[in-house]
Each structure stands twice: as C-alpha cells, then as structure tokens.
Design a protein that fits this description.
Chain A is mainly alpha-helical. Chain A is built from 13 helices and two strands. A two-stranded antiparallel ribbon of chain A has the order 1-2. In chain B, helix 5 (113-127) packs across helix 6. The chains are: A mainly alpha, B alpha/beta.
Chain lengths: 284, 253
C-alpha cells in the first residue's frame, strides 16, 4: 500500500514538475514587469535590436566559431543590466536544446573533412558546423527570451502590429499566449485524472493518450466557440483593437543604433582573430 | 425609459441535433427589475440566455429588447444594451491584460482613446479591482476573474445585465461581496442560477423553467415556499428556508 502511495506521490510530483518547469513561461511576464532602464525602453527598439542580432548571428559562415563568440556580449549585458535571473534563462534554453542538437547531430558523421589539427587529433568540419549550430541556437534563443523577459509577450506583439505585421497573425499569437495556460492546466488535470485511475502504470498507455488528446481537441473547439460568443457579445466585428501608446525617443535610437552598429562591425570583421594576431605579433 | 424592458413571447428553440431547448417561453421584465431564472440542469436556462443577445435565433417566437425587436438589423444595438456575463470567466476574459479586456468592448463601439480609458477605469472602480488593470487574466483568482468579467460588461454601459451562474465556484466571502456589489446596480438583471439563496437576496421575482417551459413566474419568496413546485422542477428550498425553527413551529401547530 505504502509503495502504491509513494509511487503516486512520485508520479504526481513528477507531473507537477513538468508542468512547472516546462510551462512556467508566465514567469517572463513577472520579469517583464520589472523596472530598469532596459525595461522602460520602447518595445520596438528592443524588437529591432533583437532581430538585427539574430539575423547577423545566423548569417555567419557554417564553420564560423571564433568570429561569433564576441556576440556573447549582447545577452550578458542585457541580462546584467535588466537584472534578469541567469539560471532561469539558461534552464529555458536547455529545455529546447534537444531540437538544436537533433538538427546538428549528423553533421560530424556527414562532413568528415579535417579542418584543423589539435596536436595529433584532427577535427572535422562536421564538428565545427555542429558546434556552430549549437552556438547560434544559444544566441538566438537567449536573445528571444531576453526580449520577452524585458518587454512582455503582449508588448512584443503590439510592437509587431505597429511594424505592420498582418493583424490576424498577431491576434493568433496573442490568443495562443492567453490560452496556452488554460490549455496546459486542462491537459495537466486530464493526465492527473487518468494516472490516478491507473496507479500501477508509470506512463500513459498509447490508447489512453489518443483519447486524452482527442478529448482535449474537442474541449478546445468548445472553448473556442464560447470565447467567440463572448467576443460577439462585446461588439466583435472581425477586428481586434488594442490600445497601447508607444513613444520612441533618443534613448531608443541610441540603444538600437549602437547595438546594430556593433553587430555589423562584429559580423564584418573577425575581431577575435585580429586580437589574436595582434597579441601573438606583439609577443613575437 | 422603455429601453430596459425585455419581452419574450412564445419562444421555441430546437438544437441542430434535434434536442429541444425551449418549448414556448414567454415573460416580460420591466425597467429595473431583478429576475432569477431557476431550473434543473438542462432545463433551458442557458439556451434562453443565449437568445437574449441574439447568439441563438429562435425557431419560433419573438424577443423585444427595449424598443427593438431582436433581429439581424438590430443585433448590434441589442448586444450593446444587453450585457452578458458568462459562467466561466476564462471564456469571457480573452485579452492579454485586464485593461485590454475591459477596453475591448468600448474600443469596438468606436469610443476615443481618452473615453475608453475613462470607461475602463470607471468600470474597474465600480467592481473594486483598479489595482489589477495591468495583470494578465490567467493570473487572477476566481473571484477577481469574476469581478473583471463584470467590469468588461459594465464598460459597455448596458441597460440590462444577464448573468449565467455568477456565484458558481466562488468562496463564501467572494460570493457575499459579489452579491453586495450586484445589489448596488440599478440595471435590469436576469440571473440564471442554482444558488437560490443568492436569488433571494437579489431578486424580487423568480421564473422557474422546467423542460423548456416556464412553470412558475412570480414573487421569489412565494415560489421558494412552494415545495411541490420546487421538487417537480428539480430544485429544493433555499438553504436558509430549510429547517427554519419558525416554519417548523408553524407546521407542528
């Protein structure tokens, strides 16, 4: 009996952990409510800067490694000055990292051409491109997480709308963000209910999973209908209007231009290489 | 002030799957009246409420809201004057923040930004949740969600308030606060509920619906005394009227 109870407790504990860790994106809203100079910047400035950062990082050559490393400065400066928790951001990056690993994991097998020798060990181009993919992934995901943690998802969406992104697209994003919490709550409750009635199995049987997923889909349809009804009641006519005044001043211009120029400079010239040559030249 | 009147005449509705929802419902609610709509699960209360702002269209019968008969041309005007508070606040609060949610209606009605700002603040003040304006709705407690839902409707300055189970899933004190709040409203109110004690507090009149028909319509305190009627409609006396020492003494005598 006690083993059944402990098993239940542990599985419940496990589920709750999944729920908390994987979906605690709501915490980013709490972070976004902070009050630092970076928080107060116009969302559009942060959005553009993040986009320039991501584009420059992605545009590097596939074997690029050393040239990319100075880009670390952007996330580090923003996390420090925005007083964001390093660990939280790192955890979120790790959580999605399997996708990046999956994308690059075959590179070392496919591309075996040796690029450099470290002593007697030859390192193939595949390994370079693999690590390069991981590095790009860390940079881009961190930048996106920082953007949301400093700005808030809704403000980012509002900024996208101001930049002329099609309205239906932005509205989809907003609804997705609003209801992801309701959806995860609902699925968590369903999984819990099913596991309580199958105390001896640690994982959900495939057939159960199928019916849970189907049920969730049907509930989602129902909810969509109820939400639409609520929208109609308040005069919905196909347009979602959001009131969010934005004001960009010289601070925003300095922030955006400063970073963008730095990124382009770092992209165009391999600063670590130059620094290395300078130092080794000096030592000689 | 004839625009606070709700007149329903011989309303019939059958769902597309053949389920009969309403079988000839008629009543008239006048200005400033508070009416409780009671009945067992599946009696047709929610179906009736969905007709009142034109979400469902009756198979037969007519509805008049104020001066307008409810039809396609008047739909927008009717929806503006009938404020609907749904049972589940998560369905009602769909915008990213409380402010956006309350502003949704006024913005759709075409008010200027200043006016929207004023209306939102006013509505939030009325229900006592101004401090929540920047919060995302999913982070609120059930009671707070309910208050905000009511604010979203108040911001559109409706003449008639229609509520579906407003006290469900509230803790006793939140429920009490809600009742006190609703007492202060001067609107005509139609409240579908199983909480007969709340109905006694808020509504002077009660309409009992059973199997899609009105089986009783009259003063709340008279209807809630009629045990046979309540029993046949799947209801029971309000808790505070059960085991009442005074009533017991009368019976014994």
């Amino acid at each position: 009996m006690s083993s059944v109870i402990s098993q239940r407790c542990s599985s419940d504990f496990f589920m709750n952990n999944i729920g908390k860790d994987a979906f605690d994106i709501g915490y980013m809203d709490t972070l976004a409510a902070g009050d630092s100079l970076l928080h107060r910047l116009d969302p559009r400035a942060k959005l553009i800067t993040t986009l320039v950062f991501i584009v420059t990082v992605i545009s590097f050559d596939k074997y690029a490694l050393s040239a990319m490393t100075p880009f670390f400065i952007y996330p580090i400066v923003l996390i420090s000055f925005g007083r964001l928790p390093y660990r939280y951001i790192l955890k979120k990056v790790l959580l999605v990292s399997p996708f990046a690993i999956l994308v690059g994991i075959f590179n070392p097998l496919m591309d075996r051409e040796i690029l450099i020798h470290l002593g007697s060990i030859g390192i193939s181009g595949g390994w370079f491109s693999f690590i390069s993919i991981i590095l790009r992934f860390i940079f881009t995901v961190t930048a996106a997480l920082i953007l949301i943690s400093l700005t808030g998802f809704n403000a980012v969406c509002a900024a996208l709308m101001k930049f002329g992104l099609p309205r239906p697209f932005v509205v989809q994003l907003l609804f997705f963000y609003r209801y992801i919490f309701v959806l995860t709550d609902e699925s968590e409750r369903m999984v819990r209910a099913s596991s309580f009635r199958a105390p001896n199995s640690k994982i959900i049987a495939f057939s159960t999973f199928v019916s849970l997923a189907g049920n969730l889909l049907l509930r989602t349809f129902d909810r969509a209908e109820r939400i639409y009804r609520a929208m109609c009641c308040r005069g919905f006519d196909g347009h979602i209007r959001i009131m969010r005044p934005m004001k960009a001043g010289y601070q925003e211009i300095i922030f955006t231009l400063g970073w963008a120029l730095l990124f382009i400079l770092l992209r165009c010239s391999n600063v670590p290489l130059k620094l290395g040559t300078l130092i080794t030249g000096y030592l000689r | 002030m004839s625009h606070h009147i709700v007149e329903v005449d011989d309303l019939h509705y059958t769902y597309p799957d053949g389920t009969v929802g309403l079988k000839g419902v008629s009543f008239r609610i006048t200005h400033g009246e508070s009416v409780a709509l009671v009945g067992e699960n599946g009696a047709g209360k929610s179906t009736l409420l969905l007709h009142l702002n034109g979400y469902l269209t009756a198979c037969r019968g007519t509805i008049r809201i104020g001066d307008y008969p409810l039809n396609k041309t008047n739909l927008q005007a009717v929806r503006r004057s009938v404020g609907m508070v749904f049972q589940n606040p998560d369905d009602q609060l769909f915008m990213p923040t409380v402010f956006d949610d309350v502003a949704f209606g006024p913005l759709n009605l075409g008010f200027s930004q200043d006016e929207v700002e004023r209306k939102v603040t006013e509505a939030l003040k009325t229900v006592g949740v101004v401090h929540l304006r920047k919060r995302p709705p999913y982070k609120l407690s059930q009671g707070e969600k309910r208050s905000v839902s009511i604010a979203t409707v108040l911001a559109m300055s409706p003449d008639i308030l229609v509520m579906d189970e407003p006290t469900s899933s509230l803790d006793p004190q939140s429920r009490r606060r809600l009742i006190e709040l609703l007492k202060t409203f001067r609107h005509s109110k139609i409240i579908a509920t199983h909480d007969l004690d709340m109905a006694m507090d808020l509504c002077e009149r009660t309409i009992v619906i059973h199997q899609g028909k009105v089986v009783a319509d009259g003063a709340a305190h008279t209807i809630f005394q009629d045990e046979n009627l309540l029993c046949s409609s799947g209801l029971e006396k309000p808790l505070r009227m059960q085991n009442c020492p005074v009533c017991k003494a009368v019976k014994r005598a």
